[in-house]
Design goal:
The protein has 88 residues and is mostly helical. It contains 4 helices and no strands. It has one domain (7-76). One of its GO terms (biological process) is proton motive force-driven mitochondrial ATP synthesis.
């Protein structure tokens, strides 16, 4: 049974596993398409967590947590080496 929505217009969560390779190949991987995807993601995050009537620190704290996690993953090799070193 064919879906009434064309594959190109489906969101990722609506794509079935068998349709996934075709859906990925239909995405726009040009620099303009990638920049547009980041822009849409930024505006979606901003409107959901930052630009609200009753705001809290949740939106900003998620960005801070992602930054800390990213830097920890980036420096893990050096941190692991420091942890195993003996200080005596």
């Amino acid at each position: 049974m064919a879906s009434p929505v064309p594959l190109k217009e489906k969101k990722l969560m609506d794509v079935k596993l068998g349709e996934l390779p075709g859906w990925i190949l239909m995405r726009d991987f040009t620099p303009r398409g990638i920049a547009g995807a980041f822009q849409r993601g930024y505006y979606r995050y901003y409107n959901k967590y930052v630009n609200v009537k009753k705001g809290s620190v949740a939106g900003i704290s998620m960005v801070l947590a992602a930054y800390v996690l990213f830097n920890y993953c980036r420096c893990y090799k050096e941190l692991k080496h420091e942890r195993l070193r003996k200080y005596h």
